[in-house]
Amino acid sequence: MPRCAWCGTDPLYIDYHDHEWGVPTRDPQVLFEFLLLEAFQAGLSWITVLRKRERYRQVLFGFDAERLARLSDEEIEALMQDPGIIRNRRKLEAARSNARAWLQLENPVELLWSFVEGRPKINCFERIDQVPAVTPEAEAMSRALKKAGFSFVGPTICYAYMQACGMVMDHTLDCDRHAQLKTP
């Protein structure tokens, strides 16, 4: 099957590309998980995060926002010793504060999808080098999330998040997934 050029040959990346990336989701649990994973990805490659995703699910209580919001400093310190995750104190503290911010949102799904007017934005890029790293919608999302108390939600992270959750569909035209996902 023809895939986007970024996908490569790693089976984990292929599975992610073929089954998750660009697939619209309104599941609040999935949206929250991806928001935290994108924050952990900051400055690193996405494959690094994908390889650690299952461990994150284990140690971050299945991405349960209510439990993460109560994460103690001692628990963060213990997580800093876990080689199965990205051991970055600021990112772990952000997971806790982002959980708290998430719980304060009246309707996080509606808020997040509002930046694309509630429906996926279908792009038609021929090549991966045409896909932007940031868009005005991602900049607006970043501003709104920061205002709501989130961290590690810059515009580049927000655009990657929008791609991951299917708010924007950036599979290139030569990728089979483009044809499959172009009609939401």
UniProtKB/TrEMBL annotation:
Molecular functions (GO terms): DNA-3-methyladenine glycosylase activity; metal ion binding
Pfam families referenced in this protein's UniProt entry, alphabetically: Adenine_glyco
Gene3D superfamilies per the UniProt record, alphabetical: Hypothetical protein, domain 2 (1.10.340.30)
Matches recorded under InterPro entries: Adenine_glyco (IPR005019), DNA-3mA_glycosylase (IPR052891), DNA_glycosylase (IPR011257), Tag (IPR004597)
Catalysis performed (reactions): Hydrolysis of alkylated DNA, releasing 3-methyladenine
UniProt entry tagged with the keyword S-adenosyl-L-methionine: no
Binding-site residues, Zn(2+): 4, 17, 171, 175
Record-linked SUPFAM superfamilies: DNA-glycosylase
Gene Ontology process terms (BP): base-excision repair
Function as written in the Swiss-Prot or TrEMBL entry: Hydrolysis of the deoxyribose N-glycosidic bond to excise 3-methyladenine from the damaged DNA polymer formed by alkylation lesions.
Name listed for the protein in its UniProt record: DNA-3-methyladenine glycosylase I
Organism for this UniProt entry: Stutzerimonas stutzeri
